[in-house]
Amino acid sequence: MEQTVYCEGCGVPLQSEDKSKAGFLPKSAWNNEQVICQRCFRLKHYNEVQDVDYSDDDYLRMIHQISDTNSLVVKVVDIFDFNGSFISGLQRLTGNNPIILIGNKVDLLPKSTNRNKLINWMKKTASEYGLKIQDVYLVSAVKGYGFDEVEEAINTYRGEKDVYVVGCTNVGKSTFINQLINRTSGIKDAITTSYFPGTTLGFIQIPLDEKSALFDTPGVVNRQQIVHYVTDSDLKIITPRKEIKPKIYQLNAQQTLFFGGFARFDFEKGLKQSFVCYFSNELMIHRTKLDQADEFYTKHVGELLNPPNRESLEMLPQLTKQTFKIKNEKTDIVFPGLGWITIPEGGITVTIHAPKGIQLSIRPALI
């Protein structure tokens, strides 16, 4: 019986029988120095994404295997999309194994961000989601910030146990693992990473010592993430790549802000004040009068209000509105996958328009 060989890039079993299925590798490439499937090869060298015949439940079933192990679970979330990148029911999927929580992409936050406040908010929110965690760490997987503390924590909590790194799609989980591997072994880009969701398709095993290993796991799909409703080119625009520069808009009541064509903020009632917007520096923000906003959107979405481009517009759920009475000062309204607005003064009413199914949230201001 032939031994199963797994792709070093995404963890899927390799095969040469069916080009349309995951793990396809031409027979001529089996003896290459790095054995990766054709999908990983094209993703790595040409930035092309090939769809695979895996369902959302397939990924959850794979993660559920962790509940049968005695291990440490490292849960990675995207600081800019905490709610969207949080795996619902993770405690059930991973059993009684201890969990540490990693907030990735900290390098993109403005330098004025209160780190302790962010960590405390993450602990509180994780608890509200029913997740019992050992601790929270803030890192930049791309820049390598915060990894001294993370390495020490992993070694402390795991003992001699295996480590499973889990996360939703597009949180930077594979980049996080590559950073760990690079720091310990000097090997760069050991596993395939990309902007695109669903890159890792199986468990990828990286030895830690003679007794234990680190496992990269498939990204869990959460349909509340806006990433699943945009084209690759739009995803690059709305995903911050540099430190966010806040944009301040002084608004009177009955004025509106559009964030590209993805979301809309209506200032319904309240005293004139300055709203601070934290979004990708490349996302265009447009101001208009509230009584002209519907017509403005219909006329300009996909063109002046871009992104979304026309292709994304066909995939994007219809914008639905939700009204909030903001009582407290210094409050953030979070648009999952996009960013947030800080409201400095309380006592106002706002209406938010966001794609249906994308869950808005409110929190005390982080900055």
From TrEMBL:
It holds the Pfam family MMR_HSR1. It comes from the Bacteria. InterPro entries: G_CP_dom, GTP-bd, GTP-bd_ribosome_bgen_YqeH, Mito_lipid_metab_GTPase, NOA1/YqeH-like_C, P-loop_NTPase. CDD domains: YqeH (cd01855). Residues 57-223 form the CP-type G domain. NCBIfam families: GTPase_YqeH. This is Ribosome biogenesis GTPase YqeH. It comes from Gracilibacillus marinus. The gene is yqeH.
